[in-house]
Amino acid sequence: MDSLISLFTEKLGLDRNHFETFYGELKTKDLKKKEHLICEGSVCNFIGLVSSGTLRSYVRNNEEEFNNDFYFENDFVSAYTSFLTQMPTNCNIEALTNSTMHYISYEKLNKLIAQDNAFLKLAKYISDTYFIRKCKRETSFLKHSAAERLEALSSLYPGIEQRVSQYHIASYLGVKPESLSRIKLLTYINK
């Protein structure tokens, strides 16, 4: 929770009372490895903060899965478009390891905002975080090679290769697992 306190007091300029009010509305959810936090077709009515563990977000096209995000400690986790629109999501979020998250419901967050518009700073921060992550990913696919995308992923999530299988990393990068092995080998040789 130290990172959440820091977010409230240092990044957002809110006071400890705001944090205490928000914290009082949080619920905790434990997920087992391979358990889904949300499935395609459901409406996402929460924003969570990963306390421990690793999760992935993916979409399906027929029987194939395509990873589009990963969540680690202190990351916000949500099917955010569904959260904003309160319409069914087209993505799935699955725990890759046993994980714990703290979350607030759509209704409770909006109630806090209605009571004190200072909570809009938190809502804006979460929206900005999601927007920037999505823009960086989109730009990466348009401008960078798979090797450059791998390097960017490794700098964004140091140690990801020890936490996430090569299969999932390859899917996120938009390559086949065997191509990822080749990319890593070539990168190693060229260093």
UniProtKB/TrEMBL annotation:
Q: Which domain of life does the UniProt lineage start with?
A: Bacteria
Q: Which residues form the signal peptide?
A: none
Task: Please give the coiled-coil regions recorded for this protein.
Answer: none
Its taxonomic path starts at: Bacteria, Pseudomonadati, Bacteroidota, Sphingobacteriia, Sphingobacteriales
Residues covered by the Cyclic nucleotide-binding domain: 29-116
Protein name as catalogued:
CRP-like cAMP-binding protein
SUPFAM superfamilies given in the database record: cAMP-binding domain-like
Matches recorded under InterPro entries: cNMP-bd_dom (IPR000595), cNMP-bd_dom_sf (IPR018490), RmlC-like_jellyroll (IPR014710)
